[in-house]
Amino acid sequence: MTQKGRMKPVKKSKAEEPELEPLCCCEYIDRNGEKNHVAACLCDCQDLDEGCDRWITCKSVQPETCERIMDTISDRLRIPWLRGAKKVNISIVPPLILLPVFLRVASWHFLLGVVVLTSLPVLALWYYYLTHRRKEQTLFFLSLGLFSLGYMYYVFLQEVVPKGHVGPTQLALLTCGLFLILLALYRAKKNPGYLRNPASNDKSLGSSQIECLNSKGQEKSKGFLGADTSGSLNNRTLKDDLKGSSRVSAGSPTKVKEDWCAKCQLVRPARAWHCRICGICVRRMDHHCVWINSCVGESNHQAFILALSIFLLTSVYGITLTLDTICRDRSVFTALFYCPGVYANYSSALCFTCVWYSVIITAGMAYIFLIQLINISYNVTEREVQQALRQKTGRRLLCGLIVDTGQYNRGFLRNWHQFSTLGTHPFHHPAEDIV
Questions:
Q1: Which residues are identified as catalytic?
Q2: Is residue 206 in some structural domain?
Q3: Would you say residue 63 lies in a domain?
Q4: Which domain holds residue 346?
Q5: What's the domain of life for this entry (predicted)?
Q6: What is the per-residue DSSP string for 124-137?
Q7: More confident position, 265 or 427
């Protein structure tokens, strides 16, 4: 009877456990694990109040305070969504606000246009080096690129098409080019060829060995608080055993030292590198592209080149149509530098400013496209080029524009054939290519 009496309260306590209430569209769980509301985004922010007080009194704000303010803003910047408000990356917001404002201010006067169009690349480069030095991922450049495409197309429809000089066929070609760019970018955003940790799915380890390692990890984890400790011990034991097995199979210690990635805990194949921004190794890594917020590797290099080529063709075509509309009876190159009376009308001035903005972006992408074509022709990646320049190896041509390491170069046609078959099937390298 005593045992039955003791069991009844346990059943009641389990039945009386309160269930978590579903979040409404404006509620969310903040970084402190507490339920919060979107309408209370400006409440209880001591760091922001302190920063504003110091800024009003002309006192310096400490970097730690600025970081806490940015963390608070990034946590509370949310939009209503089903089953809870979704967090918005703060790096997406500046291009959506600053780009239309800057371009419309630049269309007021010629001198304002020169100042704004000169400062925009400088600010973008400054932000790039700031995030690149801190090894941070950012959606700023991806947001800037996508919003620039959309905003240029919007200005073209609102200001250029109503003038009557653009036909339906030309508009359809430009629209198709825009959709092809988005499709190629979507393909380039996919997996570039990430190397998975053998601890997750390694066929060389039997199930009995894995169970034994798990049991050892669970025995070691007794007495510690939380379940994460046992998982970390299991992963660590698996990584150590895999690392030992890779050392035995690799041969000489020097090769193991060159191939082994201490951060990913795996043996890398030839031409694979660890991306310090993504935090993972990538097969045949070329570089980390901020415009797609992803690495360019074996699986998406072709889509990256395709996106660049379609963008250049579409951008040049759109620039030509716009200049033919606002500067009649002039060639494209002449109208770009001399178009009298273009600032007499605000509509034509805005179109001319957007044309120059597109020219700056197109020139930068054309330089990247040229470097990519040269590297593919010599069968080198941008990562290998940078390493060769630091170590002062390789052959430099055309004032350093071409860097030939000579390690993987098999001739122009064979290099392009190898590039065309990337990601389709495993390419068998010659014996001298194996690191």
A1: 289
A2: no
A3: yes
A4: 91-191+299-372
A5: Eukaryota
A6: HHHHHHHHHHTT--
A7: 265
Specify the pLDDT at position 202: 44
**Cα 194 to Cα 428: distance, rounded to the nearest angstrom:** 19
171 vs 41 pLDDT, higher one: 171
- Are residues 180 and 308 part of one domain? yes
Instruction: Tell me the residue type at 82.
Output: L
Phi, psi of 279 (to 5 degrees): 75, 30
Q: How many domains does the chain have?
A: 3
d(CA 113, CA 117) in angstroms, rounded, equals 6
Question: CA-CA distance, 96 to 100, in Å (whole number)?
Answer: 7
On the CB side of 344, CA atoms within 13 Å amount to 6
Average model confidence (pLDDT) across the chain: 77
For residues 347 and 303, state if they share a domain: yes
Report the DSSP beta bridge partners of residue 260: 267
Is residue 138 domain-shared with residue 175, that is, in the same domain? yes
Residue 204 lies inside a defined structural domain of this protein: no
Note whether 61 and 110 are same-domain residues: no
In a domain, 133, yes or no: yes
The CA–CA distances, whole Å, from 331 to 169, 328, 342 equal 21, 8, 15
Contact 146, 291 (CB under 8 A): no
Q: Which residues of 375-395 are buried (b: 16+ CB within 10 A; e: fewer)?
A: bbbbbbbbbbbebbeeeeebe
Residue 118 has pLDDT above 80, yes or no: yes
pLDDT single digits (tens) 211-250: 443 444 444 333 333 333 334 434 444 444 444 444 333 3
The more confidently predicted of residues 227 and 119 is: 119
Regarding whether 132 and 55 lie in a shared domain, the answer is no
For the question of whether the overall pTM of this predicted structure is more than 0.85, the answer is no
